[in-house]
Write a structure and sequence with these properties.
The protein contains three helices and no strands. It is mostly helical and about 90 residues long. The protein has one domain (about 1-80). Helix 1 (about 1-15) packs across helix 3 and helix 2 (about 25-50) packs across helix 3.
């Protein structure tokens, strides 16, 4: 159940990437991948540190995915900026 919570939190926070300029590596899908992977990794790390199982859920389970989601989105954004990814202006 914890994995579902981490995925859902990451997906919910991913929606806020529309407020950031589109310089993510591989665009909005890259942002989705970065958020989901970051949320899952940080959730697993926190649960392992606390010694909880995957079926034990509480408020900490929810909060564990937030920092990883933000860090994952930031990493994918920095990769996109470093590669010089610019949005196409079709005006």
């Amino acid at each position: 159940m914890s994995i579902v919570i981490w995925f859902t939190v990451a997906l919910a926070l991913w929606h806020f990437t529309i407020y950031v300029p589109d310089r993510f590596w591989q665009g909005i899908i890259g942002a989705l991948i970065g958020c989901v992977v970051g949320g899952l990794v940080s959730g697993v790390v926190v649960e392992l540190i606390l010694g909880n199982g995957l079926s034990d859920t509480d408020l900490i389970t929810f909060l564990a995915a937030v920092p990883g989601t933000i860090i994952g989105a930031w990493i994918v954004y920095r990769i996109g900026v470093a590669q010089g990814v610019e949005p196409i202006d079709e005006a």
